[in-house]
Write a structure and sequence with these properties.
This protein has no helices and 5 strands. By secondary structure, it is an all-beta fold. The strands form 2 sheets. The protein has a 3-stranded antiparallel sheet with strand order 2-5-4, with no helix packed on it. The protein has a two-stranded antiparallel ribbon with strand order 1-3. A hairpin with a 4-residue loop joins β4 (75-77) and β5.
């Protein structure tokens, strides 16, 4: 579909999101693990970081001590959050 020059209209091209902060008690209600998705070659490693979040998804300063585990046994992860990919591709 082609528009004639006289038919074009001006439109807004932005938006704003706002929310009220300070509505939580500062407790950890979620844990974010970053990076969320990664692609690794077999045997490659990546360091995971865990961050405590409140119910507004704001970072909480309380210390968290996550325990990492690997399901399906393809790879390993140490106590510091370093994941090493296993030898099976596509997992």
């Amino acid at each position: 579909m082609y528009l004639r020059e006289t038919a074009k209209e001006k439109v807004a091209n932005g938006f704003m999101l706002a929310y009220k902060t300070g509505n939580t008690d500062g407790n950890v209600s979620r844990i974010g693990v970053y990076p969320m998705q990664s692609l690794l070659l077999p045997g490659a490693s990546i360091k995971l970081e865990s961050i405590g979040l409140n119910s507004n998804f704001e970072t909480v300063t309380k210390s968290i001590n996550p325990v990492y585990t690997v399901s399906n046994g393809n790879g390993s992860i140490d106590a510091n959050g370093v994941y090493t990919a296993g030898n099976t591709e596509g997992m």
